[in-house]
From TrEMBL:
<dbReference type="GO" id="GO:0003777">
    <property type="term" value="F:microtubule motor activity"/>
</dbReference>
<dbReference type="GO" id="GO:0051231">
    <property type="term" value="P:spindle elongation"/>
</dbReference>
<keyword id="KW-0505">Motor protein</keyword>
<keyword id="KW-0963">Cytoplasm</keyword>
<keyword id="KW-0175">Coiled coil</keyword>
<dbReference type="InterPro" id="IPR001752">
    <property type="entry name" value="Kinesin_motor_dom"/>
</dbReference>
<feature type="compositionally biased region" description="Low complexity">
    <location>
        <begin position="556"/>
        <end position="565"/>
    </location>
</feature>
<feature type="region of interest" description="Disordered">
    <location>
        <begin position="449"/>
        <end position="491"/>
    </location>
</feature>
<dbReference type="GO" id="GO:0007052">
    <property type="term" value="P:mitotic spindle organization"/>
</dbReference>
<feature type="compositionally biased region" description="Pro residues">
    <location>
        <begin position="509"/>
        <end position="519"/>
    </location>
</feature>
<feature type="domain" description="Kinesin motor">
    <location>
        <begin position="43"/>
        <end position="374"/>
    </location>
</feature>
<dbReference type="GO" id="GO:0007018">
    <property type="term" value="P:microtubule-based movement"/>
</dbReference>
<keyword id="KW-0067">ATP-binding</keyword>
<dbReference type="InterPro" id="IPR027417">
    <property type="entry name" value="P-loop_NTPase"/>
</dbReference>
<feature type="region of interest" description="Disordered">
    <location>
        <begin position="1"/>
        <end position="40"/>
    </location>
</feature>
<dbReference type="GO" id="GO:0005524">
    <property type="term" value="F:ATP binding"/>
</dbReference>
<dbReference type="Pfam" id="PF00225">
    <property type="entry name" value="Kinesin"/>
</dbReference>
Amino acid sequence: MEPEGERGGEPQTDRRPGTLPRGQERPSPGEEREGPVEGRETRLRVVLRVRPLTCTETRRGDRRVVHSLGDGAVHVSAARHDATFGFSAVFDASASQEAVFEGSGMRQLVELAIDGFSCTVFAFGQTGSGKTYTLMGPLTQSETQPASPALLGLMQRSFACLLEQSRSRGSDLALSASYLEIYNEQVRDLLSPGPPCALPLRWSKTRGFYVENQLSVDFENLEAIVSLLLQGSQRRRTSAHALNRHSSRSHALLTIHIRSRAPSTCPSKQGTLCFVDLAGSERVKETGSSGELSMEANSINRSLLALGHCISLLAKPRGKWTHIPYRDSKLTRLLARSLGGSGVTLMVACISPSSRCLSETLSTLHYASRAGRVTTRPLANRVSREKLLQTLEEEIHALKLENLSLRQQLCLPRVPVRSTEVPGNPPKACLSWGGRATRSSCDNQPLLRSAHAPQIPPGHSTRLRQPNTTSASIPRLPKLPPASGRSSCPGCPQCCPGPADATVSQVLPVPPMLQPAPPEGSAGVLPLRQEDTGLPGSHQLHRHPQPHQGKRSQGRSRSLSQQHPLPRELPGPERGPSPEGRVIPSAPPWPGLPETRVGRGTGLAGRADLSSHSRTVDGASSRDLARTGGTTTALGDTGIWDYKDHTDPLYGHTHGALQPARHSQFISV
Ligand SMILES: Nc1ncnc2c1ncn2[C@@H]1O[C@H](COP(=O)(O)OP(=O)(O)OP(=O)(O)O)[C@@H](O)[C@H]1O
C-alpha cells in the first residue's frame, strides 16, 4: 500500500531511502542500485523502530497510535492527527534485535568502517523510547546476569561482525575504542579512571572537532570490547524518572578506531565506527523531574534543539546552505563530520506507540524525515606508507620521552622500594609508586584491572593507549598487588595512611638508549614531586590537568631548572641502584626552559606556570611543560615546542603558533 501524504501537516515525506556507499541496501524493484559513491553526495540512512507498549502503558490502557504499513512506511492515527511517514526501514514492536541489525544496514556500515570510512550510527527519540535498548540491549540485566544473546544490541552485534569480518578478510586490524559522554555540556571520558573531569573539545584543520586527551583502549576480542562497553556504560550518568527507570542523562559516544596494519595494505586504511546514544528529549512536566534532573533535562533539550537546527539547515540542498551552527553545542560539534562532512551515517529513530506520547512521537518522526534529506560526501581515510611510517616514528619518539619522564617520576626516594622483577628485561631501574600517583590508581582499580587483563579471559587482552599511538610502544602500568587487610586499594593518602601501605613498587626495564650518561660529580636524588614536574603522572591515566596546578604556580618565580628536576634519577646501566637504595643520578639537570616572554592576557611576565595540560601540536598530542606568559612549552611528538597562544576573535577558542623551543637540543633521544 502506498502511503498517503500527511494530512494537514508537511507534505508527504520523501520516501526514497537514504543510501549508503557501495549500494548496501536492497533496491526496490525498478530502483537503480547506486554504485560506489565515494566523494559523491550520499543521503543519511534513517530507519525507524517502534517499541512495544510497556506494562505501565498497557495497564493504563494507552492506545496504540503507530502502525507499520510495511515497505518502510508508518502511519500515525489519532483524533486530530493522521499522517504517514516513509523511511529506509521500519521495525515494529515484534522486530527482534537481530532483525534490526540485519535490516538497518548496520552490517554494511561495519564493512565501510573497515574500508576506511568514518561511520556513525545514532539513536534518537523521546526518553524511554528504546534508544539504549536498540544500541546495547537491556543493559540493566547484565549487572547481575548476562543478557540473553538474542537481546544483544546493535553495538555488540557490530563488534562481533567487525571481528568476524576482520578474520574472514584476513586483514590485520589494530582496534581500539574510546567512550565519552556529554553531560551538562561537559565532555567526559567514560574509560578514563578517576572522578569524571571535563575534557577540552578542540578543532584542527586536519581533524575537525576532536576531544583532546581522550583515552583510547586497544582490544582484540569480543569479550574485551564488551567489557569496556559495560564499564563505560556503568560510569555514564543515569537516573530514574516517571517515564524511564534507567534514563540516560547524557549523550554517549563510543568510537571504534580501525586501522589496518598489514604492511602490504598500503595506503593504510583508517576507519571509525561511532555509536551515539543520545539522551532522550523530555518534557519536564511529564517526567516529573526537578532540581538536578530538570537541569539535566534542560541541557539535553538544548543540545537536541541545536542538533535539530543543524539538521534542518543541512536538509536544504547544498547550494542553499548558509552557515551551519555546529558550534552551538558540544554534541553538534562532535557530530559535524557525520552530519555534513565526509562520514557515512545511519540514524535510528525510536518511538513509543502509545497515545500518551503522540506529540513527542510526531516530533521524532518529523525530525527523522528531515534527517533523511541530509547528505554527506563519504571519503575513505587512507594514509600513505611514508606518512604512516613517519607518524609511527614520531609516536615512538614521543612515547620514549614520555616513558623516560614517567619512570623518573615513579622513582620516589622517600618510600622504601620493594622490587619485583619483570623477567627478561635487563637492565632495570627501581621504580616506586606511591603518594599522589596511587590516589587515582586507588579510585580506578576496576578499570585498571580490566584494561590490564585480569577481568579478561585468558588469551584476550586490552591495552590503554592514547589516540594515534602505536600499541607496541605503550608503557603498561605495573599490576597492583591487593593491599593486605584492606580493600583492593594499593595505597592512597585517603585510606592507607601508613608509609608501607602507600608503596607499590616494581622494576621496569629501561632501554639502554634512554639512559643518559651521568654528569661528572653529580650525586643524590632530588625530591621529585609530580606536581612540580608538570609532566604527566605515573601513567597516561594521570594526564588530565589538575585544577590546583594553575593556581599553585601563579605565584612562582623559581627558575624552571629548579622546578623541573627531570632526567637525573635513572641509574646508569652498569651501576644500578646503590646498596642504600639511593639512585645515582645519571643525566644532567633538565635544561632551563626559555626565558620569560611577555604574553597577551596573563600579565605573568617573569613567572612560569607549570602544568600538565595537554595540547595538540601540529595535530599530535603533546604535554605542556611550562607556561610563560602566553607561551606554552610543550613536549610534542617531534620534540619540544614553544606554543604561542592566540585567541580566535570569532569563536573565542585558542590556537597557537609553533616554533621549536630553544632548549630542544638537550632532550633529543
Ligand atoms: N524493542 C523493545 N522491546 C522490549 N523492550 C523495550 C524495547 N525498547 C525499549 N524497551 C524497554 O523500554 C524501556 C526504556 O528503554 P530505553 O532505556 O532503551 O529508553 P531510552 O530511549 O534509552 O531512554 P532514555 O533516553 O531516557 O535513556 C526499557 O525498560 C527497555 O527495556
